[in-house]
Design brief:
- The chain has 125 residues and is an alpha+beta fold.
- It has one domain: Alpha-Beta Plaits.
- The chain contains five helices and three strands, in the order H-E-E-H-H-H-H-E.
- A three-stranded antiparallel β-sheet has the order 2-1-3.
C-alpha cells in the first residue's frame, strides 16, 4: 500500500501523510502541484485540462493498483476496498492540523502502539 501511495507522489499529488491501519488507510494529499508547471507557474486552462486529474480518478488509481497487489498477496479475489472514499477538503491551517493529528495518532488511539512514531506504517513529511 505504501508503494502505491508513493508511486504518484509529486505527479498526481504531493503526499503529506498517511497511516496504514489493519483494516483501513488514512491519507493526506495536496493536489495543488497539478495546477503549476515545473517552474511553479500557474498553468493556463488548455494546459490544465491536459494535466489535471480529479480526486476520484486519483483514488481509483491508488485503490485499483493496491487492490490487485493485495488480493494477489493475500490469495483473495474480488473487491478489496469500499467503493467510496471519505474525503475532506482542507480549507484552513487549523483544519489541516486537526486532520494531520487524526491521521498520525490513529495507531495510538487504536491501541497498536504507545507512540505513533514507532508505528511502521505511518508516513509524515
Amino acid at each position: 500500500m505504501a508503494e502505491r501511495l508513493h508511486a504518484f507522489d509529486n505527479d498526481l499529488y504531493e503526499l503529506r501523510a498517511y497511516c496504514i491501519m489493519p483494516n483501513h488507510v488514512h491519507v493526506l494529499l495536496s493536489m495543488g502541484n497539478q495546477l503549476t508547471d515545473e517552474d511553479h507557474r500557474l498553468l493556463t486552462i488548455p494546459e490544465l485540462s491536459l494535466r489535471y486529474r480529479p480526486l476520484h480518478e486519483v483514488m481509483r488509481r491508488i485503490k485499483g493498483g493496491s487492490a490487485r497487489y493485495l488480493n494477489e498477496h493475500l490469495g483473495t479475489k474480488g473487491p478489496f476496498w469500499q467503493k467510496d472514499s471519505y474525503d475532506h477538503y482542507v480549507r484552513t491551517a487549523k483544519s489541516y492540523d486537526n486532520i494531520l493529528y487524526y491521521i498520525l495518532y490513529n495507531p495510538e488511539k487504536a491501541g497498536l502502539v504507545n507512540n505513533w512514531r514507532s508505528y511502521p506504517f505511518t508516513y509524515y513529511v
